[in-house]
Amino acid sequence: MKRLNHLGNILQTHWSDDPAIRGRAKMLAGAVLIAEAIFGLIRGTRTSRKGKKRKRRMGGLIGGSVLLIAGLFFLVGGLTLWPQTWDDEVETRGVIAGYATGTGSDGRPSYRPFYQFEADGREVQLRSDLRINAKPEVGEPVGIAYSASNPEQARRTDGLEARKHWIFLGGSAVLLLIALGSLTVSVVLLVFGIRLFQSGRRDLGKPRDPQRTMSDLRSNMRQFLRGEIDIESTAAGQSGSAGGD
Length: 245
Prior knowledge:
Elements (H helix, E strand, L loop, with lengths): L1 H10 L7 H21 L5 E3 L5 E3 L4 H21 L8 E15 L5 E11 L2 E6 L13 E7 L2 E7 L2 H45 L6 H16 L20
Antiparallel strand pairs: 1-2, 3-4, 3-6, 4-5, 6-7
Helix pairs in contact: 1-2, 2-3, 2-4, 2-5, 3-4
């Protein structure tokens, strides 16, 4: 990850013996780490190898929080879609008996199939709760489970409809893992960046003044986010010698 590379570069830096140079370099590097921790890689645009400009992805605490919320949303969705079961459940085979047509959000045709199966000598129909883009094939066999005491309570046991809760739960697991990883890295960068920035102020002999410290930090972060500070020229962008002797 690029953000960890920035931290690694700073850890390898040989700081200058001159307190003024060392202090300024630490403050700039600390501000870069704090900005990366909070906002991630969202500063302006960058040029790809093909010469096309593309926006940087959102990361940091903001991006991690968005992924965390999305992961929790998918988790709730997966639990909500968990299939219902019955004590007197019976499994059988049915067929796709037909479908209702509609239009999806993308303007393309969508289809909601309904199924037919036999229970206690009578035909029972079950309407799917999913809309799909592929046209269902009428007469195709499907797996069905139903309550013996109330065959109207039924569900499909194969296909996408039977796995939709796992799709949501799988998506939730991926998003939550990425979010927790991103947030962990962001917290590490934030703590290290704050300490580095404060160390730089001490090297410059600036008094311990929380308001002045925050003012200096905001000023450096604004310069970095506006692109006025080139990260490659700071200790976060160079390995070993940035701000060194």
